Amino acid sequence: FVWKDTYVFVWDCAAGLADVAHPVPATKEHKVAADKDATGRVTGPEMCQAAARPGGGWVAYMWWKPVKAEGAKQLAYAKKISRKVTYMLSVEGQPYEVGAGVYNDTLKVEDLNALLKQ
């Protein structure tokens, strides 16, 4: 699922695989432990930990903003780097975690995670 500059992706944290399903083909099936944001910060384990919390969790990191060229069937990453805030959730009864995020400079992860506890 892709809408504007956001999309849904699937991980398999137990198998150590990030992006089992992802709309940008170049990112598919890489190691969670090697998942780094655009600044080089390792984010994979943090995203798996967020997904494992009851009700899931939010993580913020710097990421390349996706673009879709006119007539293209798939997304690709642009060189522009933006702050992305992603929600991760384990899928009950399945070995997968699902994530989706927005590019936003002002959302606070602490506030979003607090809302999950209400």
From TrEMBL:
PROSITE patterns in the record: EF_HAND_1
The protein's name: Double Cache domain-containing protein
Any single Pfam family the record assigns to this protein: dCache_2
Start and end residues of each Double Cache domain: 5-83
